[in-house]
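Researcher: Next entry in the queue.
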Amino acid sequence: METTFVTNVSMILGNPASTFALVGLIVLVLALLYIKRIPMDTRLVVHIGLAIALTVVLHTLRLYHMPQGGSVTLGAMIPLLLLAFRYGPAVGYLAGFVYGLLNLIQDPYILHPVQVLFDYPLPYMVLGLAGYFKERVMLGTVVAIMGRLVCHYISGVVFFASYAPAGMSPYWYSFVFNAAYLIPELIICLLIMRFLPVNWLLRFR
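Model: Structure for this entry, 205 residues:
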């Protein structure tokens, strides 16, 4: 029985899709357990709803849409980032998870269930990382969006390698493809954060 278990583990770890599926599910479960600790009240529910609604609207204001998914927008992630800055990472994870599911309906590009996990719920959940940097908004914005880049990068390496031009490494292709829209998105979000009255927004009741 022990030999069978070791063999099964080796098969999972030897398959990139299975490995990332396992890692992604562990991250998702841990985040959802963390989210369960949130003391919900009416005001928080309203703020989460407003942030998600604004994100949905802003996501439609695209400057550019990539052929296999991904867009440069007019700061669509700002509402989720502000929510994480104000209420902390757990609320950011929750709002990002819900928005990721809505984005799957709004702008679906589906190749595989694990690809869906790394292209929809997880990359928006990790925006909650901004909540660890309440006093350093610009750094928090960078960390959160780079976390999203990592999720899309994994999806690109495992599931979009066939789209890479002949002779091009899938690792490099995935990085270039995802950075092509997330780096401009990051710059736009940093510019908006620079000019927004962030401190006032985070205190606003």
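Model: The first helix runs from residue 2 to 14.
Researcher: Noted, moving on.
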